[in-house]
Design goal:
The chain has helices at about 1-30, 40-45, 95-110, 195-215, 215-220, and strands at about 50-60, 65-70, 80-85, 85-90, 115-120, 125, 130-140, 155-160, 170-175, 180-190, 195. The chain is an alpha+beta fold and about 220 residues long. It has one domain: Nucleoside Triphosphate Pyrophosphohydrolase, CATH 3.90.79.10. The strands form two sheets. Strands 1, 2, 3, 4, 5, 6, 7 and 8 form an eight-stranded mixed beta sheet that branches. Strands 9-10-11 form a three-stranded antiparallel beta sheet. Helix 1 packs across helix 4. The N and C termini lie close together (about 5 Å).
Length: about 220
Protein backbone atom coordinates (compact mmCIF):
# COMPACT_ATOMS: atom_id res chain seq x y z
CA UNK A 1 0.00 0.00 0.00
CA UNK A 2 2.81 2.45 0.90
CA UNK A 3 4.45 2.08 -2.52
CA UNK A 4 1.13 2.54 -4.33
CA UNK A 5 0.32 5.54 -2.15
CA UNK A 6 3.64 7.17 -3.03
CA UNK A 7 3.10 6.52 -6.74
CA UNK A 8 -0.38 8.04 -6.52
CA UNK A 9 0.89 11.24 -4.90
CA UNK A 10 3.94 11.46 -7.15
CA UNK A 11 1.79 11.17 -10.26
CA UNK A 12 -0.47 13.98 -9.12
CA UNK A 13 2.48 16.11 -8.07
CA UNK A 14 4.27 15.62 -11.40
CA UNK A 15 1.11 16.48 -13.31
CA UNK A 16 0.69 19.76 -11.42
CA UNK A 17 4.36 20.67 -11.85
CA UNK A 18 4.26 20.11 -15.61
CA UNK A 19 0.74 21.33 -16.43
CA UNK A 20 -0.22 23.49 -13.46
CA UNK A 21 -0.67 26.65 -15.53
CA UNK A 22 -3.22 24.95 -17.79
CA UNK A 23 -5.14 23.59 -14.78
CA UNK A 24 -5.36 27.11 -13.40
CA UNK A 25 -6.60 28.36 -16.76
CA UNK A 26 -9.26 25.62 -16.83
CA UNK A 27 -10.51 26.78 -13.44
CA UNK A 28 -10.62 30.39 -14.66
CA UNK A 29 -12.59 29.32 -17.73
CA UNK A 30 -15.22 27.66 -15.54
CA UNK A 31 -16.20 31.04 -14.13
CA UNK A 32 -18.76 33.29 -15.90
CA UNK A 33 -16.54 36.37 -15.67
CA UNK A 34 -12.82 37.09 -15.56
CA UNK A 35 -11.47 37.64 -12.06
CA UNK A 36 -8.34 39.78 -11.52
CA UNK A 37 -5.23 37.62 -11.25
CA UNK A 38 -2.82 37.84 -8.33
CA UNK A 39 -0.35 39.62 -10.62
CA UNK A 40 -3.03 42.14 -11.67
CA UNK A 41 -3.89 42.82 -8.04
CA UNK A 42 -0.29 43.50 -7.06
CA UNK A 43 0.02 46.06 -9.86
CA UNK A 44 -3.30 47.77 -9.23
CA UNK A 45 -3.50 47.85 -5.42
CA UNK A 46 -1.19 48.83 -2.60
CA UNK A 47 -3.28 47.33 0.22
CA UNK A 48 -2.98 43.65 -0.71
CA UNK A 49 -2.75 41.11 2.08
CA UNK A 50 -1.39 37.57 1.75
CA UNK A 51 -2.79 34.28 2.99
CA UNK A 52 -2.35 30.54 2.47
CA UNK A 53 -4.71 27.58 2.54
CA UNK A 54 -4.04 23.86 2.84
CA UNK A 55 -6.29 21.47 0.91
CA UNK A 56 -5.71 18.05 2.48
CA UNK A 57 -6.52 14.61 1.11
CA UNK A 58 -7.45 12.05 3.77
CA UNK A 59 -8.71 8.45 3.54
CA UNK A 60 -12.17 7.62 4.88
CA UNK A 61 -14.29 4.51 4.28
CA UNK A 62 -12.07 3.41 1.39
CA UNK A 63 -12.31 6.79 -0.38
CA UNK A 64 -9.98 9.73 -0.77
CA UNK A 65 -11.66 12.78 0.72
CA UNK A 66 -10.96 16.51 0.90
CA UNK A 67 -10.97 18.46 4.14
CA UNK A 68 -13.05 21.64 4.09
CA UNK A 69 -14.62 23.73 6.83
CA UNK A 70 -17.64 25.91 7.42
CA UNK A 71 -16.63 29.23 8.90
CA UNK A 72 -18.45 30.58 11.94
CA UNK A 73 -20.69 33.62 11.62
CA UNK A 74 -18.79 36.87 12.14
CA UNK A 75 -18.86 40.47 10.86
CA UNK A 76 -16.89 39.82 7.68
CA UNK A 77 -17.26 39.08 3.98
CA UNK A 78 -16.58 35.34 4.34
CA UNK A 79 -18.86 34.76 7.33
CA UNK A 80 -20.47 31.31 7.33
CA UNK A 81 -18.91 30.26 4.03
CA UNK A 82 -17.39 26.89 3.15
CA UNK A 83 -13.65 27.30 2.82
CA UNK A 84 -10.32 25.52 2.74
CA UNK A 85 -8.47 25.70 6.09
CA UNK A 86 -6.06 28.61 6.10
CA UNK A 87 -5.53 32.23 6.93
CA UNK A 88 -3.41 35.35 6.81
CA UNK A 89 0.38 35.48 6.65
CA UNK A 90 1.95 36.57 9.93
CA UNK A 91 5.32 38.18 10.55
CA UNK A 92 6.52 35.06 12.36
CA UNK A 93 5.91 32.91 9.25
CA UNK A 94 9.02 32.42 7.12
CA UNK A 95 7.01 31.79 3.94
CA UNK A 96 3.55 31.01 2.52
CA UNK A 97 4.01 27.28 3.15
CA UNK A 98 4.62 27.89 6.84
CA UNK A 99 1.47 30.03 6.98
CA UNK A 100 -0.58 27.14 5.56
CA UNK A 101 0.81 24.67 8.11
CA UNK A 102 0.34 27.03 11.05
CA UNK A 103 -3.22 27.91 10.08
CA UNK A 104 -4.15 24.26 9.52
CA UNK A 105 -2.93 23.48 13.02
CA UNK A 106 -4.74 26.45 14.55
CA UNK A 107 -8.07 25.72 12.86
CA UNK A 108 -8.05 21.94 12.57
CA UNK A 109 -5.96 21.10 15.63
CA UNK A 110 -3.60 18.91 13.59
CA UNK A 111 0.12 19.68 13.48
CA UNK A 112 1.79 18.61 10.22
CA UNK A 113 5.55 18.50 9.68
CA UNK A 114 5.37 19.78 6.10
CA UNK A 115 6.33 16.51 4.42
CA UNK A 116 2.64 15.94 3.73
CA UNK A 117 2.57 18.87 1.27
CA UNK A 118 3.14 17.66 -2.29
CA UNK A 119 2.03 20.48 -4.59
CA UNK A 120 1.04 24.12 -4.90
CA UNK A 121 -1.82 25.51 -6.97
CA UNK A 122 -2.31 28.92 -8.62
CA UNK A 123 -2.28 32.02 -6.41
CA UNK A 124 -5.79 33.51 -6.29
CA UNK A 125 -6.86 37.08 -5.66
CA UNK A 126 -10.05 37.51 -3.63
CA UNK A 127 -11.45 41.01 -4.29
CA UNK A 128 -13.95 41.24 -1.39
CA UNK A 129 -11.24 40.71 1.25
CA UNK A 130 -8.27 41.92 -0.86
CA UNK A 131 -6.22 38.79 -0.16
CA UNK A 132 -3.86 36.96 -2.47
CA UNK A 133 -4.18 33.33 -1.41
CA UNK A 134 -1.59 30.63 -2.05
CA UNK A 135 -3.15 27.11 -2.05
CA UNK A 136 -1.11 24.04 -1.07
CA UNK A 137 -2.06 20.36 -1.42
CA UNK A 138 -1.26 17.79 1.25
CA UNK A 139 -1.96 14.10 1.69
CA UNK A 140 -2.46 12.38 5.05
CA UNK A 141 -2.13 8.60 5.09
CA UNK A 142 -4.66 8.20 7.92
CA UNK A 143 -7.49 10.17 9.46
CA UNK A 144 -6.10 12.36 12.26
CA UNK A 145 -7.76 13.26 15.54
CA UNK A 146 -9.35 16.61 14.79
CA UNK A 147 -9.50 19.31 17.44
CA UNK A 148 -11.16 22.19 15.62
CA UNK A 149 -11.09 25.77 16.86
CA UNK A 150 -14.77 26.41 17.44
CA UNK A 151 -14.29 30.17 17.41
CA UNK A 152 -13.35 29.96 13.71
CA UNK A 153 -14.79 26.64 12.55
CA UNK A 154 -18.51 25.92 12.73
CA UNK A 155 -18.21 22.49 11.09
CA UNK A 156 -15.56 20.14 9.70
CA UNK A 157 -16.44 18.69 6.28
CA UNK A 158 -14.82 15.49 4.99
CA UNK A 159 -16.02 15.26 1.37
CA UNK A 160 -15.19 12.35 -1.00
CA UNK A 161 -13.17 13.45 -4.03
CA UNK A 162 -15.62 11.64 -6.31
CA UNK A 163 -18.26 14.17 -5.22
CA UNK A 164 -16.45 16.74 -7.40
CA UNK A 165 -15.70 14.58 -10.45
CA UNK A 166 -18.94 14.35 -12.41
CA UNK A 167 -19.46 16.85 -15.23
CA UNK A 168 -22.44 18.41 -13.47
CA UNK A 169 -20.79 18.72 -10.04
CA UNK A 170 -20.11 22.40 -10.68
CA UNK A 171 -23.37 24.09 -11.59
CA UNK A 172 -24.83 27.57 -11.69
CA UNK A 173 -26.44 28.44 -8.36
CA UNK A 174 -28.19 31.49 -6.93
CA UNK A 175 -25.98 32.74 -4.11
CA UNK A 176 -27.32 35.05 -1.42
CA UNK A 177 -24.92 37.89 -0.58
CA UNK A 178 -24.52 39.71 2.72
CA UNK A 179 -26.12 42.87 1.33
CA UNK A 180 -29.34 40.97 0.65
CA UNK A 181 -28.85 40.67 -3.11
CA UNK A 182 -28.23 37.43 -5.04
CA UNK A 183 -25.83 36.44 -7.80
CA UNK A 184 -25.69 33.38 -10.04
CA UNK A 185 -22.30 31.64 -9.76
CA UNK A 186 -20.84 28.16 -10.37
CA UNK A 187 -20.91 26.17 -7.13
CA UNK A 188 -20.45 22.67 -5.77
CA UNK A 189 -23.12 21.13 -3.55
CA UNK A 190 -22.55 18.69 -0.69
CA UNK A 191 -25.45 17.75 1.56
CA UNK A 192 -26.91 21.12 2.61
CA UNK A 193 -23.69 23.01 1.88
CA UNK A 194 -22.98 25.23 -1.12
CA UNK A 195 -19.32 25.75 -2.04
CA UNK A 196 -18.68 28.81 -4.18
CA UNK A 197 -16.31 31.73 -4.77
CA UNK A 198 -12.54 31.30 -4.46
CA UNK A 199 -12.97 27.91 -2.77
CA UNK A 200 -14.89 26.59 -5.79
CA UNK A 201 -12.23 27.94 -8.16
CA UNK A 202 -9.41 26.25 -6.23
CA UNK A 203 -11.38 22.99 -6.08
CA UNK A 204 -11.98 23.20 -9.83
CA UNK A 205 -8.25 23.54 -10.43
CA UNK A 206 -7.65 20.50 -8.21
CA UNK A 207 -10.29 18.53 -10.13
CA UNK A 208 -8.68 19.48 -13.46
CA UNK A 209 -5.35 18.14 -12.20
CA UNK A 210 -6.98 14.95 -10.88
CA UNK A 211 -8.79 14.22 -14.13
CA UNK A 212 -5.69 14.89 -16.22
CA UNK A 213 -3.48 12.69 -14.04
CA UNK A 214 -5.58 9.54 -13.79
CA UNK A 215 -7.02 7.58 -16.73
CA UNK A 216 -9.93 6.52 -14.49
CA UNK A 217 -10.48 9.48 -12.10
CA UNK A 218 -13.30 7.79 -10.17
CA UNK A 219 -11.28 4.62 -9.58
CA UNK A 220 -8.33 6.74 -8.45
CA UNK A 221 -10.56 8.27 -5.80
CA UNK A 222 -10.65 4.90 -4.00
CA UNK A 223 -7.95 4.19 -1.43
CA UNK A 224 -5.79 1.17 -2.22
CA UNK A 225 -5.69 -1.13 0.82
Amino acid sequence: MIEQHLQFIQSLSNSIKSEGISFGEMADASMPFKRPSAADALVQRADIRHASVLLALVPQNGKWCLVLMKRTEYPGVHSGQISIPGGEFEATDSNARETALREFNEEMGVALNGKEIFAQLTDRYIPPSQFIVTPFLACLTRMPNWNIDKTEVAALLIIPVEQFLSNDSLRMTEIGLAAGSTISLPAYHYQEHVIWGATAIMLTEFVAAWKSTFSDPVAAASVVV
